[in-house]
TrEMBL record:
Taxonomic path: Bacteria, Bacillati, Bacillota, Bacilli, Bacillales
Protein name listed in UniProt: NUDIX domain-containing protein
PROSITE patterns per record: NUDIX
Coiled coil residues, start to end: none
InterPro entries assigned: NUDIX_hydrolase-like_dom_sf, NUDIX_hydrolase_dom
GO molecular function: catalytic activity
Pfam families the record matches: NUDIX (PF00293)
Length: 172
């Protein structure tokens, strides 16, 4: 069972923690992180969720993601999730999320990094990850249309691919 720090709408840590699944007050939120790794060809490393995993079983998903646990900063949560799910070590200490998206109960921080990863060296977390592979934006959009990928907004995925080299929403 995960314990989460609760934060307010300004991302200020509250002096309160809950266990995953416990109810939150309307003015309480939590942090979720996502990491998208792109290779030098511009493909994204994607993972297939286990068939017994709660939430989107057996579907393909972006590289990794999960909730920050109590005591985690966004960067620590991103590093932990990436290592737990795929066995990849990456130092997030000096970077910040490329984008943050608000959702009903919290904040989604997205980190976009470029690194050529040898798929044969991945260590898949058996409780969560069934498989991993590289996929182009077009392949991912096709998987979404086929109902085989977590149903992210297509515009978000396009933004992740296009915005991976810089921060902000303006082309430089």
């Amino acid at each position: 069972m995960e314990k989460w720090d609760l934060i307010d709408r300004n991302r200020t840590k509250l002096e309160k923690q809950i266990m995953r699944g416990d109810p939150m007050e309307p003015d309480e939120f939590h942090l979720v992180v996502h990491v998208c790794i792109f290779n030098s060809k511009g493909d994204m490393l994607i993972q297939q969720r286990q068939p017994f995993k709660y939430g989107w079983p057996n579907l393909w998903d972006i590289t990794c993601g999960g909730s920050a646990v109590a005591g985690d900063t966004s960067q620590q949560a991103a590093s932990r999730e990436l290592f737990e799910e795929l066995g990849i070590s990456y130092d997030f200490k000096t970077i910040r999320p490329h984008i943050t998206i608000n959702f009903d109960r919290g904040f989604d921080d997205y980190y976009l990094i470029e690194q050529d990863i040898d798929l044969t060296k991945l260590v898949l977390q058996s409780e969560e990850v069934k498989a991993a592979k590289w996929a182009s934006k077009e392949e991912i959009l096709t998987l979404i249309q086929l109902g085989e990928f977590v149903p992210y907004y297509e515009g978000l995925l396009s933004f992740l691919f296009e915005g991976r080299h810089h921060y902000g929403s303006i082309r430089l």
